């Protein structure tokens, strides 16, 4: 057999497709951006959907994981915790249950704050106990937090992080350095911005007022704490002390107006006497202490 | 990623696009011209297990070329990795490498006086780039070798 080489008229051009690199790049970039945006939005909707559907056990686990990332100075073994727990337990209507037992964490801090976290962890700063002037005020703050919990607001506020938390729980991944919270959760950055929407605040306010009325028979004095905070907020200098509370609970100026209006519509009684606080609530173990040398 | 990083990224992307396109166009022009000039010398893969045609001399010729990926091609390919499909920006790069390597081998053989190049083989290797710790743009090496006879 003899093979003869036949010279082609033109050199072969290969099989590279003639294309515009710029158009190709724009197409790729567009595809990736659009898909990412769709996933991001879908993740947000999925998180909202998931927030009210995760089981209490899963929520408890998430709450415990997040709780370990908080390094505040917690006061344990104090009679005040017992008092706060009893007050909180007296707030729900008869027959109303919470999906998880609530745990009070008393935090030593001179910043006025109260918050509830996923899993039923309620944080009360000692400064709050100094700032309230009647039990009605304190009960309203606690009931407001309870309202957030009953509406699943703490899990909702986790946003997209919630999806990763639940997924990591299911897959059993997570790192010990971050208290069991997977790194990706910190990367989504929503963990630190636990703020509620105005709508959520209004719902919690309404719930809080209704439960305060449920306990005391009237809504009087319950809102005084917020009235004072609002006034203090106007003043320079004291702004910092109360700002932490407002960073997690955005305060609108018409908050009290709206509550009074809602109370008038529902025929809620808004006059009555204030129930005094235990005398030494601002002192450790509620034992008599010097006003300045407290804690 | 702050403003400066984005600026550097865009600068590299634009630089990569314009310089990359310019060099590719110029390279293809040169490749086509030289391919036409050397077309009359046969270059075949035949000859590994067959006896070579009768000739006086036979010699090994090697053509090697290294071409760098530009930043624009690299980002394009990274995006393509996410989506899937033909990485056309790299296809033209390898096509240039292959043809350039063949030409360098052929031109050397022709200078020696070869009237045929038999048993031609091609090989590629990646240099630097995404392999290992280095995440910058890499290069590709294409080697062509064959037996020239005269
Ligand atoms: Zn709130």
Write up what this structure looks like.
The complex is a heterodimer of chains A (295) and B (150). Chain A has 295 residues and is mainly alpha-helical. Chain A is built from twelve helices and four strands, in the order ααβαβββααααααααα. Chain A has a four-stranded mixed beta sheet with strand order 1-2-4-3. In chain A, α9 (198-216) crosses α12. The N and C termini of chain A lie far apart (105 Å). Chain B is α+β, with helices and mostly antiparallel strands and 150 residues long. Chain B has a single domain, classed as Translation Initiation Factor IF3 (2-Layer Sandwich). Chain B is built from three helices and three strands. The radius of gyration of chain B is 19 Å and the shape is elongated. Chain B starts with a helix and ends with a strand. Chain A binds chain B through residues 3, 5, 7-8, 10-11, 14, 16-17, 19, 21-22, 24-25, 28-29, 31-32, and chain B through 17, 20-21, 32, 35-36, 39-40, 42, 44, 46, 72-73, 75-76, 79-80, 82-83, 86, 88-89, 91-92, 95, 98-99, 116. Bound molecules: zinc ion. Residues 144, 148, 196, 201, 204, 249 of chain A line the site of zinc ion.
SSE layout:
The complex is a heterodimer of chains A (295) and B (150).
Chain A: H1 21-51, H2 56-69, E1 74-75, H3 79-89, E2 103-107, E3 114-117, E4 121-125, H4 126-131, H5 135-150, H6 153-157, H7 160-171, H8 183-188, H9 198-216, H10 224-234, H11 239-248, H12 255-266
Helix pairs in contact in A: 1-7, 5-9, 9-12
Chain B: H1 3-37, E1 58-68, H2 71-83, H3 88-112, E2 116-127, E3 139-149
Antiparallel strand pairs in B: 1-3, 2-3
Helix pairs in contact in B: 1-2, 1-3
Bound molecules: zinc ion (ZN).
**What's the shape of chain B?**
elongated
Unique bound compounds = zinc ion
Average pLDDT metric of chain A: 80
Q: From N to C, what is the helix and strand string of chain A? A: HHEHEEEHHHHHHHHH
